[in-house]
Each structure stands twice: as structure tokens, then as C-alpha cells.
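Support request from a user on the community tier.

User writes: "When I paste my C-alpha cells into the form, the page sometimes reloads and wipes my input. The last time it worked, I copied everything first. Here is what I submitted, just in case something in the input itself triggers the reload:"
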């Protein structure tokens, strides 16, 4: 249990997380490297034609991890401190991130029974999204974790919209496996649905509380 926390501790947590994400995103390329390190000569066109599934899986997972890191970065830009709960939920988030290269390889190697692999891949995304949403909830419940200048701007409802869409995609990927990961295009509805539910846009640097017009700051 953490009894003392410092700004350096938050920096170490963020740096450790960034390093783990960097390793995970680097691991995605290893199956592509293996394609040309078997001691044989290869034509570039033949590699792309024969291994298009591997390249597609790499591209999808690269974008997925990059998007998840971007969301994590956005949330932690609001924080000035962390708690034990945030620490351990962040480890859950990391566990799902580093698991993505494994599921990516399964995607590249999947045979005719694609439903379990697609479900595992999307299920991993559900865990990643849900754990980051939980970090937001923890920060919202403990405003002292947030930087004063952006305090009150975190809103986890957008993340819960994304979780709902991912769960729908998960079910549909099992019920209609022929569509496969294309069900993830449902995530494009996240923005419109978020606006429909009246979720405020996340802005870093704006004042969360309007300044009292009657208060003088000594400036003209």
C-alpha cells in the first residue's frame, strides 16, 4: 500500500507505461521480420500477396495500440498524482496492451474458425478500454488526483460508449464471424453517440470553472 507519493512517482509510472507500450508496439513487427530471415530469396510482391493477412493484422494492431496510448496519454495529462487503485488498474491496462501482439499473431495465423480469435482480439480491446475508463472514474471520484487547472474536465461517459460498442462488436463477431473484425467499424459511432449523450469534449488547458467577473486580478 502506498503511504507516500511524489511527482517523481507519477513520472516513473508514466515512463514505465510508455516503455511497455513501446515494446508491445515493436513486437508487432517481429512476425514481418521473420518472413525475410529464413535464408531464402523473396520477391516483395510475393511476400505481400502470400502474407497479406500478416500485414493486415500488423496494421490493425499498430493503429489499435497507438489509439489506446493516445487515450491513456490524454487521461494522464489531467493528473498530478495517483493512488494505489490507479496504479494497479494501470497494470491491468498494460497487461491487455502487451497481450495484443499475441492476439495479432493469432489473427495472422487464423484458419477457418475465425470467431474465437476475433472474439479474443475484441475482448482484449474491451479490457483495455474498460481499465482506462476505470482510471478516469477513480480520478473523477478523487479530484485531488487532477491538476488544478483542468480539474473537473474528465468525463468517463465517452469511454463507456466505446465499451458498449465494443461489446456489441464482440457479440456480432461471434454470431456473424464472416464479417470478422470489420464489426470494429462500429466504433466510428462513438463520436456521434458521445455527442448525443451530451459528453463534454476533453480539453487540456481550459479553465474548468468560469472566473468570477467580480474578482480583480490586478490586470487591465
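"...and here is what came back when it finally went through:"
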Amino acid at each position: 500500500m502506498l503511504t507516500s507519493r511524489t511527482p517523481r512517482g507519477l513520472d516513473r509510472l508514466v515512463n514505465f507505461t510508455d516503455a511497455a507500450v513501446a515494446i508491445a508496439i515493436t513486437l508487432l513487427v517481429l512476425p514481418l521480420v521473420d518472413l525475410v530471415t529464413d535464408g531464402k530469396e523473396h520477391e516483395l510482391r510475393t511476400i505481400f500477396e502470400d502474407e497479406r493477412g500478416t500485414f493486415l493484422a500488423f496494421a490493425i494492431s499498430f493503429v489499435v495500440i497507438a489509439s489506446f496510448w493516445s487515450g491513456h496519454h490524454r487521461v494522464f495529462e489531467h493528473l498530478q498524482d495517483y493512488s494505489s487503485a490507479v496504479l494497479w488498474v494501470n497494470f491491468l491496462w498494460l497487461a491487455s496492451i502487451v497481450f495484443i501482439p499475441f492476439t495479432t499473431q493469432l489473427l495472422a495465423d487464423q484458419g477457418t474458425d475465425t470467431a474465437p480469435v476475433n472474439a479474443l482480439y475484441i475482448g482484449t480491446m474491451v479490457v483495455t478500454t474498460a481499465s482506462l475508463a476505470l482510471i478516469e472514474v477513480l480520478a473523477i471520484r478523487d479530484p485531488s488526483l487532477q491538476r488544478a487547472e483542468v480539474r473537473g474536465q474528465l468525463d468517463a461517459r465517452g469511454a463507456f460508449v466505446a465499451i458498449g460498442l465494443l461489446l456489441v462488436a464482440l457479440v456480432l463477431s461471434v454470431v456473424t464471424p464472416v464479417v470478422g473484425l470489420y464489426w470494429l467499424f462500429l466504433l466510428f459511432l462513438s463520436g456521434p453517440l458521445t455527442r448525443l449523450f451530451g459528453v463534454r469534449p476533453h480539453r487540456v488547458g481550459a479553465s474548468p470553472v468560469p472566473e468570477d467577473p467580480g474578482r480583480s486580478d490586478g490586470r487591465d
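Agent notes: The reload is a front-end session timeout and is unrelated to the input. Residues 201-220 have pLDDT under 50 and may be disordered. The two ends are 49 Å apart (CA to CA). Escalated to web team.
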